Structure formats: structure tokens, C-alpha cells
Amino acid sequence: MEMKKRITLELRNRSPAEVAELVVDNCRSTDGEVEGLSDAFSQLEFLSMVNVGLSSLAKLPSLPRLRKLELSDNNLSGSLETLSQKCPNLTYLNLSGNKIKDLSSVEALQQLKALQSLDLFNCEITCLEDYRDSVFQLLPQVTFLDGFDQEDNEAPDSEGDDDGLCLSLSHTHTHCRPVIG
């Protein structure tokens, strides 16, 4: 299903301004861009666009109240400065499984002053020597990177939905995996 159609369905006869959470995972972006979202989603606090084929965030509308953004398993490689312009209050950003290769790509996130948790798991950048130290140095506002703080303490589960099915991934600093796709 294409993204615009999915967003229309998810509205469930509400106006965009009434929506605080929007999940459009696994639908399709026709051109690698955000489609069907507009500045009218002014109250949006949580947005999940996992595995939708995004390669750009250029058409992301202004979402000033957005706090949590899930963008894992897309084709994003950079242009993250859009996030600081359009979503200045992000506290949580999941970019795992994207095509982010180097520190210069995440440098744009320095402007996200409220950002506390960043996930880059399964991105090529995690293969860089001193990856974690470098990201924490580049983004001092970030408390948790890939679910762990600088002392390797696991982030608390703020969702409180631990139903016992969560598998703990081995968190050694050699969690580099070949990126497929």
C-alpha cells in the first residue's frame, strides 16, 4: 500500500491536527520521499516510518511537537539536517538499518539539542573504529546510543511493554554486521 493511502486510513476520520501518534510501517513511498504528511499534523509526537523505502527526508513537513521518530530499515544515507529544521524537539531517533556510513552524516544531528537516544544499529557507521566514543563526542546531548549509555548501561525501557519476548542482543563493540541490500 502506498504511503499517502496508508496515512489517510490511519487518520480514521480524524483531522491531521488531532493525531498525536502515526504508524505507517511497511507501506511504500513511491519516490523515496515522505508522502501524505503535511504541516497540518501539528500535534504529532510519535511517527513511525519503518521499512517504507525512504531515501530522503527532504519532503518531511514541519513537526514541531515530534519527540520520537522511527526511521529504521530505510535507505537514508544523509541529509539529516532536515530533522533539526523540521523536528527540533526530537528526543528519540531510530535510524538503524539505514545506509549511514560516516560521522559527517550524523553531524547534522548536533542541532537536535533535546536528542537523548539515537539508534544506528546495523548501519555501516558502526564499523568505524571508536564509533561509539566518536558519536558521543560529536553529539554530547545524546545519553543512549544503540540502546546503551557511554558506560554500557542499557537504556531503561520507557514503554514498559516488556512482555518477556525481548531478546537481548550481544552488546560488544564488535556488533558490526554486513549490511545487505
TrEMBL record:
One of the protein's GO biological processes: regulation of apoptotic process
Compartments where located: Cytoplasm; Nucleus
UniProt keywords, alphabetically: Chaperone, Chromatin regulator, Cytoplasm, Leucine-rich repeat, Nucleus, Repeat
GO CC terms in record: cytoplasm; nucleus
Domain of life assignment: Eukaryota
Membrane spanning stretches: none
Any GO MF annotation of the entry: histone binding
Keyword Ribonucleoprotein recorded: no
Residues making up the signal peptide according to the UniProt record: none
Family: Belongs to the ANP32 family.
Function as written in the Swiss-Prot or TrEMBL entry: Histone chaperone that specifically mediates the genome-wide removal of histone H2A.Z/H2AZ1 from the nucleosome: removes H2A.Z/H2AZ1 from its normal sites of deposition, especially from enhancer and insulator regions. Not involved in deposition of H2A.Z/H2AZ1 in the nucleosome. May stabilize the evicted H2A.Z/H2AZ1-H2B dimer, thus shifting the equilibrium towards dissociation and the off-chromatin state. Inhibits activity of protein phosphatase 2A (PP2A). Does not inhibit protein phosphatase 1. May play a role in cerebellar development and synaptogenesis.
The name this protein goes by in its record: Acidic leucine-rich nuclear phosphoprotein 32 family member
